[in-house]
Design goal:
By secondary structure, the chain is α+β, with helices and mostly antiparallel strands. The chain has helices spanning 8-17, 20-34, 91-100, and strands spanning 40-45, 48-53, 59-67, 73-78, 81-85.
Length: 105
């Protein structure tokens, strides 16, 4: 998936200005959109979203963090593995794919 080259200055300002509440809002929104997937649950825990697949018991912890290689823009990640830019329309699909591949906790 190609993403346009970030404006480094704008990305640094965006990441620096991102508050914990904004990061939580991205995670909450992702959790709501994950409800469209059968057998997948999502629950906020502290500053992470716990995503689980009921049939297999697989789990994935998703955080919203700045990604240095993208100029500090906010990304959804699991551990140190980036999943998708925060707010990306493809994020729910990419999270479920990562979960079903067994790349979770």
């Amino acid at each position: 998936m190609e993403h346009p080259s970030p404006d480094p200055l704008a990305a640094v300002v965006e990441a620096a200005a991102a508050t914990p509440r904004q990061r939580d809002e991205y995670l909450y929104s992702l959790g709501q959109r994950l409800r469209a997937y059968d057998g997948v649950t999502a629950e906020m825990r502290d500053d992470r979203l716990e995503v689980a697949e009921l049939a297999t018991g697989r789990r994935l912890r998703v955080a919203c963090v700045p990604r240095e290689s993208d100029g500090g823009r906010l990304w959804l990640s699991s551990g140190r593995i980036p999943i998708a830019p925060a707010g990306s329309p493809d994020a729910p699909l990419l999270v479920v794919r990562r979960l079903r591949e067994g790349n979770g906790i």
